[in-house]
Design brief:
With 534 residues, this protein is of the alpha+beta class. The chain has three domains: 2-30 and 180-384, no CATH class; 65-175, no CATH class; 465-526, no CATH class. The protein contains 21 helices and ten strands. The chain has helices at residues 2-9, 27-30, 32-42, 48-60, 181-184, 186-189, 205-211, 216-225, 239-242, 246-278, 294-303, 310-321, 334-351, 355-359, 362-383, 397-408, 411-417, 419-429, 439-447, 450-453, 457-460; strands spanning 66-71, 86-90, 96-101, 111-116, 147-152, 161-166, 173-175, 512-514, 517-520, 523-526. The strands form three sheets. A five-stranded antiparallel β-sheet has the order 2-3-4-1-7, with no helix packed on it. A three-stranded antiparallel β-sheet has the order 8-9-10, with no helix packed on it. A two-stranded antiparallel ribbon has the order 5-6. Helix 10 runs antiparallel to helix 11 (294-303) and helix 15 (362-383) packs antiparallel against helix 16 (397-408). The longest helix is centred in the middle third of the chain and has 33 residues, at 246-278.
Length: 534
C-alpha cells in the first residue's frame, strides 16, 4: 500500500519546500525553474537571436533531469538493466560519481544513457547542467570526463566490470525534462494515468474543450516566437494581426511558460498522485522515476528553485491586491499559505491511501493557482483600461499582451462557467490593434464565476494605489465590508451584498472614507494607515 511505501522513503536529509515536508527527494524538479529564470533573462531586452536562445532552453531544457549519452567503442561487456543498475566514473572536477542506467543495454551495446543523480540541495540540485542552455549558464564541473573508464559493480562478490567510454561533454549532456514537454506532450500526459485513449483529467478537460487542442500553450508560445497568429478553436492570439513587437511577444512567451504551462504541470502531478493512489501503487511503481512521489513533484514545480513560478506570481499579486497574510500588502501571499496547507492535507490522505479525500483536495489546490492568473489579468485590464475607470491608464501593446496571456491561463474555466463572461474578458483583452479595455466589465465577468473557481471576493482583493488605499471606487473588492482590508477612496461606498464566491454576506451596511474616518450609518470608526479595523 502507498502508506507503507511513504514510511520507508522518508529521510531526515530531504529538504523542506517552504512549510511542506516532502516524502521523496525532488530538488531536480525544482530545478526546472532555472530554465524559466534563463528564459526570463534572455527576453528582458529581446532580439531575434535571444528569442531563438530562449526557444532552445524552452524546448531542450538544461537544468532538470540531466542525461549523459556515452559511447562504448568496444561495447559493454554484459547487459545493463535500465532503472536498476548504476555505474561510476570520474567527473571533470575529480569526484567519483554514480549514475543510473536509463534504458536497457544488451551485451555488446555501444550506446549507454546515464541519469545523473542530484545533490539533494534544492538551491543547487545538479552540478552538470548543459542541454539547451546558453554557454554562460552551463555548469560542467560535475559532468563526466570526455573520456574515461566506467565501473559496474555486479554484486554478490563478483569482480567489478569496467569498460572504456567517450562522449562530447557539450553535445551529449542533454535533459529528459523541459518546460515545453508539459504542453507538447499534454495529449498523453493529461489523460488519466497518462494512457492514450483515456479521458483527460477533470482539471484539464475545460482547456481542451475551449482551445480545441491539448498543446494550446506550446502553440501560443511557438506563434509568439515567430510573431504569428494562432489557430485555436477559441481564444486566439492574433499577434501578427495586432502588430506586436518583440517586447510584447516576449511577455507572451515567458508568462506562458512560467504560469500557463507550469500551472498545468502542478495539476498534472496532483492528478497523477491520486491516480497512483487509486492504482495502489508503491512510490515509483507507477511513476517515470523510482522513489519519486508525484505530490512532492507538484510542490517542487509550484515553489521552484528560483522565484519565477506560480508561488512568486501569487506573492507579487498579493502586494497589488491586498491579499498578503501579515498585513494586506506585507507577508506571504494568503494564496501560498492556503496552497501549502492543501498540499499537506493531500499528503495526509495519500499517506493512508484515502484516495477519495485526496481527490477532493485537487479543486482546492487549483483554486489557489487561478488566483494569481486572475489577479494578473485584472491588473493589466486596469493598466489598459480605456473606459474611463482608470484616471491614468498606460495602454500599450506590451501591457495588452501581459493581460492576454494571464487571461489565457484561466479563460477556459470562465467559459465553462459562463460563456458570455468569457467572451467579455476575451473581447477586452485579446491581442488586437485596439489597445484598451473596460476594466469594470472584465472585473464583473470574473466575479460571475468566483464560485465555480472555488474562490471568493476577499481572496481576490482589490487593486491598491500608491497611497495604500484602493485605486478608485471601481477597484474595491466585491462582497462588501468583509472583503475590504484597506482604506476606501473618498466618496466611495461599500454595500454588503451576496458574495459571488464562496461566502454570503447578509447585512446591508454602507461605508465611505471622508478624511481619515470610515463613516457608517450613524457610526464613525477611525481608519488607520494600515487598513480598516471594524
Amino acid at each position: 500500500m502507498l502508506c507503507a511505501s511513504v514510511a520507508q522513503i522518508v529521510t531526515a536529509s530531504i529538504q523542506k519546500i517552504g512549510p511542506y515536508t516532502p516524502i521523496t527527494e525532488v530538488s531536480d524538479r525544482g530545478a526546472l525553474s532555472n530554465d524559466q529564470r534563463i528564459i526570463l533573462e534572455l527576453l528582458k531586452n529581446p532580439t531575434q537571436s535571444q528569442f531563438q536562445a530562449a526557444k532552445r532552453v524552452y524546448e531542450e531544457g538544461g537544468s532538470s533531469g540531466p542525461i549523459a549519452t556515452i559511447f562504448v567503442p568496444g561495447g559493454v561487456p554484459l547487459a545493463l538493466k535500465g532503472s536498476k543498475d548504476e555505474v561510476t566514473a570520474d567527473s571533470i572536477d575529480g569526484r567519483v560519481m554514480s549514475s543510473a542506467i536509463v534504458e536497457d543495454v544488451p551485451a555488446g551495446g555501444t550506446t549507454v544513457k546515464l541519469r545523473y543523480y542530484g545533490t539533494g540541495n534544492f538551491d543547487a540540485p545538479h552540478l552538470c547542467i548543459v542541454g539547451g542552455l546558453p554557454r554562460n549558464e552551463r555548469i560542467t564541473d560535475g559532468c563526466y570526463n570526455a573520456t574515461g573508464t566506467m565501473k559496474f559493480d555486479t554484486g554478490f562478490g563478483a569482480p567489478t566490470v569496467t569498460f572504456a567510454y567517450e562522449y562530447d561533454v557539450l553535445k551529449n549532456n542533454t535533459n529528459k525534462r523541459s518546460i515545453q514537454g508539459f504542453s507538447s506532450n499534454a495529449d498523453t500526459l493529461m489523460r488519466v494515468g497518462g494512457i492514450d485513449g483515456n479521458p483527460f483529467y477533470d482539471s484539464f478537460q475545460p482547456f481542451v474543450d475551449y482551445y480545441g487542442r491539448a498543446d494550446y500553450a506550446d502553440h501560443i508560445i511557438q506563434s509568439a516566437i515567430v510573431n504569428n497568429d494562432t489557430d485555436l478553436l477559441n481564444g486566439n492570439f492574433n499577434m501578427k494581426t495586432a502588430g506586436y513587437d518583440q517586447k510584447a511577444a516576449a511577455q507572451v512567451f515567458f508568462k506562458a511558460t512560467a504560469y500557463v504551462i507550469m500551472s498545468m504541470a502542478i495539476l498534472y502531478e496532483v492528478e497523477t498522485a491520486v491516480y497512483q493512489c487509486d492504482s495502489s501503487c508503491d512510490i515509483g511503481d507507477c511513476n517515470e522515476d523510482p522513489n519519486i512521489f508525484s505530490l512532492d513533484e507538484a510542490v517542487a514545480y509550484f515553489r521552484g528553485q528560483h522565484d519565477v513560478l506560480m508561488a512568486q506570481l501569487n506573492q507579487l499579486r498579493c502586494a497589488n491586491f491586498g491579499t498578503c497574510s501579515d498585513l494586506p500588502t506585507l507577508g506571504d501571499a494568503t494564496a501560498n499559505d492556503n496552497i501549502f496547507k492543501f498540499f499537506g492535507e493531500m499528503q495526509t490522505y495519500l499517506n493512508v491511501a484515502d484516495c477519495e479525500k485526496a481527490r477532493g483536495v485537487i479543486p482546492k489546490i487549483a483554486s489557489q493557482l487561478w488566483l494569481g492568473l486572475l489577479q494578473g489579468t485584472l491588473r493589466y485590464a486596469w493598466i489598459t483600461d480605456g473606459a474611463g475607470h482608470n484616471p491614468a491608464p498606460r495602454p500599450t501593446a506590451t501591457a495588452q499582451a501581459e493581460g492576454a496571456i494571464f487571461a489565457a491561463g484561466i479563460l477556459p474555466l470562465i467559459d465553462k462557467c459562463n460563456q458570455a463572461s468569457a467572451k467579455t474578458i476575451y473581447d477586452n483583452l485579446s491581442p488586437s490593434e485596439r489597445v484598451g479595455c473596460d476594466f469594470v466589465a472584465v472585473k464583473k465577468a470574473f466575479e460571475s464565476c468566483y464560485k465555480d473557481l472555488g474562490i471568493d471576493c476577499a481572496e481576490v482583493g482589490g487593486l491598491i494605489g500608491g497611497t495604500g488605499s484602493y485605486e478608485v471606487c471601481a477597484t474595491i473588492p466585491c462582497g462588501g465590508t468583509v472583503a475590504v482590508k484597506l482604506d476606501v477612496p473618498e466618496g466611495c461606498s461599500v454595500t454588503d451584498v451576496e458574495d459571488p464566491g464562496l461566502g454570503t454576506i447578509s447585512a446591508a451596511t454602507s461605508l465611505s472614507l471622508r478624511g481619515g474616518f470610515l463613516v457608517f450609518s450613524g457610526l464613525i470608526v477611525i481608519a488607520t494607515s494600515i487598513g480598516v479595523f471594524m
